[in-house]
Amino acid sequence: MTTYLLGIDIGTSIVKAAVFDRDGQEVASATRQTIVLSPQPAWAEADPAEVWAATCDVIGRVLARVPTESIAAIGLSGAMVGAWVVDEQGHVLRPGIFWSDGRAQPLIDAMIAQDPALMSRIFAESGSAMQQGCTLPVLAHLARHEPEILARAAAVIGAKDFIRAQLTGRIATDIVEAAVAPGNARARGRSPSLIALFGLQDWAHLLPEPQACESIAGFVTEAAARATGLSAGTPVAIGAGDVAASVIGAGGLAEGAAVSILGTTCLNGVAVSAPVFTPPDLGILFTLPGGLWLRSMVNVAGTVNIDWALAALCPDFVEAKDAYDRMADIARQSPPGAQGAVYIPYLSEVGIIAPVLAPSARGGFAGLTARHRRPDLLRAVYEGVAYAIRDCFVATGLDFGTVRLVGGGARSAFWRQMIADVLNRRVEVPMGQEFGAKGAALLAGTAIGWYPSIPEASAACCRILHRHDPAGDGRYELGFARYRTYAGALAEAKPPNEQRLLS
Q: Where do the Carbohydrate kinase FGGY C-terminal domain residues begin and end (predicted)?
């Protein structure tokens, strides 16, 4: 009987399961949306029961395609940090808190007021510009506002760790999760000094000691087997956070490999063999399996810009099934450089976090004249995101070659070629869709001995679907220079004091 690996990916608002064969080819997949709850402004929570039910549902649907007993091992991936508070049995004690939650921001602001160098001190150890939804600040908030909940807790873990606990009855986490808590990037794990910085010494026991991503966490219990349809006793690997899992799934687990994950947000990173702490106070340094790190810069707004352009500039076919193809066809009518029109893709309410930190920055068009028409504006939007990707890679200061492009934006051939031309690098799109689930599955396969190492599994199980070589004629150099000028001006612009003006 053919045997397979099952990868499960717990996203912020979607749960995915996918089955892969020994060559890493996707055999079956299923997804289910979940609801992000916001009981108070800036909060982002999950109903753990809904997330577990969604997980059981997608597992059941993929098992309808392959025999249950054919699943050799299971791996997990998911949105990182936040806080899922569980007791010794893995039962949650409050709603799960996602990375996008903002409840800890006032606490961070107060800490910065007392110690203006706080964020730099955190970066010096973690290599990451800490976000408000990271585990340590969220845990510090809970310690102040919900200590009675923490007193009953056995652990504070991530979303995928909660699902693993439901499957195996065991509580654990991985080195990727721990290092961005924030943690110690050099030690690839927890940071006692940062735990103390947040005054969490009395709660440090709630943070599990991280384990290797490709190790076995436990085995599917009888109760989990009844709930999911899996076979009891199936091994479950530790797995990894979604970024690391996607890098593995995309075949990017090698020194110097560059990856761009072009989704709603857009993460751009280069794998390195030693932790890189430059430029200071910017970007995120992820720990990767295989003794590597990923120095990354994140565009907060990626494909959301294309969604916005479709709604705002193409109302005549916004509901069409081929709407995105039609929009790209219109954009093609404008030449490279969009006749001088430039779009700055700062659509997020939190501004930008790379390649500069500018919370008040907002997007817009620049360089417009009366001659510009819809094709120019649409092309400028595509180009603006491509320029932002290049800006992020430049900010890392690292040399890189071919870029592996994954995510929803990788489906557009027009955009793929544009990104190759803007970067002046070959762009490759791996075969498949669910790269986080695939990376988790490959970690599980390594854990049970299918592959000699996770870097070898990542390389061997990646097939390239599309390749785009750059035109090499510098067609976007002037456009990129214009972009950096306008983007820099917007990043430095200070908004007016609205309260004072309206009073």
A: 259-447
pLDDT at 2: 86
Tell me if the pTM is above 0.85: yes
- CA separation for the pair 183, 127 (Å, rounded): 9
Stretches in the chain below the pLDDT threshold 70: 497-503
Locate the domains of the chain by residue range: 81-157+175-210, 304-394+479-496
Give the separation between CA 8 and CA 198, rounded to whole angstroms.
32
Whose CA is closest to 56, among 225, 227, 222?
Answer: 227
Q: Does domain 81-157+175-210 have CATH number 3.40.50.150?
A: no
At 182, the amino acid letter reads P
Instruction: State in Å, rounded, how far the first CA of the chain is from the last one.
Output: 74
Q: Could you read off the pLDDT of 385-411 as tens digits, one per residue?
A: 999 999 999 999 999 999 999 999 999
> 365: left (phi > 0), else alpha (psi -120 to 50), else beta?
beta
Whether 477 and 381 have beta carbons less than 8 Å apart is answered as: no
User: DSSP string of 278-308?
Assistant: -STT-SEEEEETTTEEEEEEEES-STHHHHH
Same fold, 81-157+175-210 and 304-394+479-496: yes
Three-class secondary structure of residue 142 per DSSP: helix
Q: What is the 3-state secondary structure (H, E, C) of 322-381?
A: CHHHHHHHHHHCCCCCHHHCEEECCCCCCCECCCCCECCCCCEEECCCCCCCHHHHHHHH
Q: Is the domain 304-394+479-496 a CATH 3.80.30.20 member?
A: no
Rounded-to-integer distance, Cα 287 and Cα 189, Å: 9
Residue 178 CA to residue 188 CA, distance in Å, equals: 8
Residue pair 124/110 in contact (Cβ under 8 Å)? The answer is no
Instruction: Catalogue the active-site residues.
Output: 242
